[in-house]
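ok trying this again, last paste got cut off
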Amino acid sequence: MTAVASDFDDGAMSLPMNKLTLPPDLCEDVDRRVLLGGFVNAGDDMRQLIRSDARAPQDGRLRDSLASHRSGGDSVPGNDSR
């Protein structure tokens, strides 16, 4: 399967569409993720991957900040469920 823009159109959004062509092995991975991951369609999966990728640098900065507080002995505000 070659993924194209029509495969990523969920019909509910009127957003600009981008064409994306994937090699067969990546198409199989996307199909598997849709089946196992509870995504509506390939577009839903791809949007989630892009959002996760965009958050990664921010998440890394947060981890670094928490690690520096912990190594310095400072307390880190958090949600303690005890």
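PB: full thing came through this time. The chain has a mean pLDDT of 76.
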